[in-house]
Specification:
Helices cover 40% and strands 21% of the residues. It contains 14 helices and 18 strands. Strand 6 and strand 7 form a beta hairpin. It is elongated, with a radius of gyration of 35 Å.
């Protein structure tokens, strides 16, 4: 044909080597025919024509009558198309959205790009590297952080062209995930559905946490025992009564506002025999805690040498803990203030030597001590949540915290918390350093050589 008539450049399409999504196969070309008019010519076999005219189902019916081994092998090769349709239907809850996606895929134009290993990937026209990543694998799509096309780094919303070689750059972070912005430029139904599914799952997890927090706040507000009343068995009974599948579904319903935490707490109280039963449990569970908290104000864990009855307090500027070298300073109205010996304020206090006294730690004190730490990390989502979770797992009571982020995306977090066993501080700091993105964590002592006194 091309030897007889001049072809129109760019109008030759080989759908036999690379069939369309609906398995259409044919050769298309446009030539300049008689009279200088363009003529489109399609070349295909009878079998390809039957599939094009009557559809895939009719084509399978035709092949069913032809019991040949070759037909069986070709039919098996075509089954991935049907499996992909089943996957789409399973992933898409809305039937209308599924039909729109299917119609778009069958009727839409396609582009053909290559993996770095030379494998061909068919995508809807106008697709981006994000569409390519989800076509390779769902997890590759979720962890995408960049892309190279033909060896060059390009933005994720760039449009791919026929013949592009696409390499996806992925993140190894456990918290990696897609961005809401991707929904504005992805073209393939698979990518769009997978991104929506990810955010639906994330919203459910957030709702679960919000539901748990709401239950805890509602119980604290009524001075009810959290550990005894909010057991898994009690919550499961309430979830069953309210016709929820499990406790997680109950938490999610509370977090999404479908049911109030107060009504769930009311049912928990009712299941324990009313308010009287709940109050008895409260007395059992909170009495030891009150005694342990009372210790801190009465016993700072420090004594003044040679003096028995004197008010002693730990300075907040350097927050000394057992094991630190300490000195005492007699204040005018608040007894003896205890500082670390290398505290930056001690140099000024030594100008009044008559008010300096010797102090030492007592043995076996049950005091809760204040500790300040600083955490330096690369800024990312959920960083603060991960750090506070590790601190809580080590049974410390966080009193305050602050976070600041520099222009180079370094997040500096400071926390003040109570700790009963300062000797465990090294284990806590080691656990914080293992958090993804954290490159240092150390105690702040208020000394002039703070940077050099990090706990390793």
């Amino acid at each position: 044909l091309h030897a007889r008539w001049n072809p129109v450049p760019g109008r030759f399409k080989d759908y036999i080597a690379m069939p369309k999504f609906n398995l259409y196969q044919s050769l298309h070309t446009t030539v300049i025919g008689p009279g200088g008019k363009p003529v489109e010519i399609q070349i295909r076999s009878h079998e390809m024509h039957r599939r094009a005219e009557y559809g895939v189902a009719a084509h399978w019916k035709y092949k069913e009558s032809a019991k040949s081994a070759a037909a069986g092998r070709e039919e098996a090769a075509e089954m991935p198309w049907l499996r992909q349709l089943v996957d789409w239907q399973r992933e898409t809850a809305d039937p209308g959205e599924f039909l729109d996606s299917l119609r778009f895929e069958i009727a839409g134009a396609e582009v053909y790009v290559f993996t770095p290993k030379g494998e061909v990937v068919a995508l809807p026209a106008g697709s981006t590297p994000v569409d390519f990543a989800y076509a390779v694998h769902t997890e590759v799509g979720h962890r995408t952080m960049g892309a190279r096309v033909n060896g060059r780094l390009i933005p994720l919303d760039s449009t791919l062209e026929n013949g592009d070689v696409v390499e996806v750059l992925t993140s190894k972070s456990e918290t990696a995930g897609p961005s809401h912005d991707w929904l504005t430029f992805v073209r393939s139904p698979r990518a769009r559905n997978k991104i929506r599914q990810w955010f639906s799952k994330e919203r459910r997890e957030e709702a679960l946490e919000q539901g748990k927090d709401a239950i805890a706040k509602a119980m604290r507000k009524q001075n009810l025992p959290l550990q005894r009343m909010a057991s898994h068995e009690s919550l499961l009974a309430v979830a069953t009564e309210l016709r929820y599948a499990d406790v997680s579904a109950l938490y999610a319903a509370i977090g999404e506002g479908q049911i109030s935490a107060a009504s769930v707490v009311a049912k928990l109280v009712q299941s324990l025999g009313g308010e009287s039963g709940a109050e008895e449990d409260l007395a059992e569970t909170t009495r030891p805690g009150r005694d342990s908290r009372r210790v801190r104000t009465g016993d700072p864990g420090v004594i003044v040498k040679g003096v028995d009855d004197i008010w002693v307090k730990l300075a907040k500027c350097c927050t000394p803990v057992p094991g630190d070298e300490i000195v005492g300073f007699i204040t005018r109205s608040q007894g003896v203030s205890v500082h670390r010996s290398d505290c930056s304020n001690v140099e000024g206090l030594r100008a009044q030597p008559e008010r300096m006294v010797e102090v030492e730690w007592t043995q076996g004190s049950a005091t809760l001590f204040l500790v300040q730490i600083q955490v330096e990390a690369l800024d990312r989502s959920r960083l603060l949540s991960d750090v506070t979770r590790v601190l809580s797992d080590h049974h410390v009571n966080i009193l305050s915290g602050s976070v600041s982020t520099s222009n180079d995306r370094v997040a500096i977090s400071r926390f003040v918390f109570e700790m009963a066993e300062p000797s465990h501080l090294q284990q806590l700091l080691a656990a914080v350093r293992k958090i993804d993105g954290v490159f240092d964590a150390y105690r702040i002592t208020g000394s002039r050589t703070d940077a050099a006194s990090r706990v390793n």
